[in-house]
Design brief:
The protein is of the alpha/beta class and 386 residues long. The protein contains 15 helices and 13 strands. Strand 1 and strand 2 form a beta hairpin. Helix 2 packs antiparallel against helix 12, helix 4 packs parallel to helix 12 and helix 14 packs across helix 15. It is globular, with a radius of gyration of 21 Å. The two termini are 40 Å apart.
Length: 386
Amino acid sequence: MFQSRLKQFADRALMRRLSPLESGTGPTIQYAGRQVILLSSNDYLGLATHPDVVRAAIHATEQYGAGSGASRLISGTLPPHMHLEASLAAFKGTEAALLFGAGYLANIGIIPNLVGQGGLILADRLCHASLIDGCRLSRADFRIFRHRDCAHLESLLRRRRANRPTVIITEGLFSMDGDVAPLSDLVSLAERYEATLYVDDAHGTGIMGPAGRGTIEHFGLEQQIPFHMGTLSKALGSHGAYIVGPNDLIQYLVNVARPFIFTTALPPAIAAAAAAAVAVIQREPARRMRLWSNRQRLFNGVQKLGFRTTQTVSPILPILVGDAATASALAERLLTHGIYASAIRPPTVPDGTSRIRFTVTSEHTTEQIDEALHALDLAGRETGLL
């Protein structure tokens, strides 16, 4: 059974394989015995290797050990967890925060406790798989609205039964397209139809908004969106996830969110590293400035070469190819020219939209970006895309 399924994946150019690196993440990495430029990392601000972040992880390990030993409700709550939750709440301007082991765990733990059987969930078509699975686990009726299409969303809201509990779900910054949700319009619709808006700001936290608080800050909607979730594994350079919001919501989730209740707590080093990263984001705004400058340089170069992109407004720069086999071939040619950038294929993205998803960081140099653009020019010609 497994062999036949694997052959089907291979025949459709959809086979996935692990690609072990020989170094930590960074603007350059060691891969297959040579140094290449990495353009497939979510470490947008280079904080995974920031000295303060690394020192915090080492100190917490020396003080508290490598593991937490239990779930948070048994004996696993340690000072680094409490410090990180307080730091996140202060950074985001909310009453409280709660940690989860991963973004996937957060979404499948939170969404089913916002709405259940008899309720209605309306989710953007390009929502992350963890959001979709959270919707399914809720047992609420689940409908998709076209990507960023508020007119379609309103048509679904208008047809629903009166007084039906309803949740609208979106990413803040979409992870595969690099565009942002129309949050102002979504807030208006949620208020008009008495729905709850749930925002996953995994990729926006740390890079969007004047202070890096995320996509909600970017739109000036922090008072209108009282809670949201995000992750510690992108711009914060660590691991895990969180929800921030009112204290009563946080206490409710402590009592009902199964992925929180029944999971061993994050290792203390992870929590301490993330808290250090929150502090760095606030005191080193120049990192965001470098990130956006690098993003613009790479984006302008991609446009000049003539590649087709999404409507990205972020450091996520997808180059649309369409065919999965061609996207894989482009990734292979890029690697030959010293650029590591993965091909993204179905089911991660819809059929016919396979792509190379460049992600630039604050730590790339202008020379590295120019080298990547030169490699892209060569690889595009070699694969017949240019």
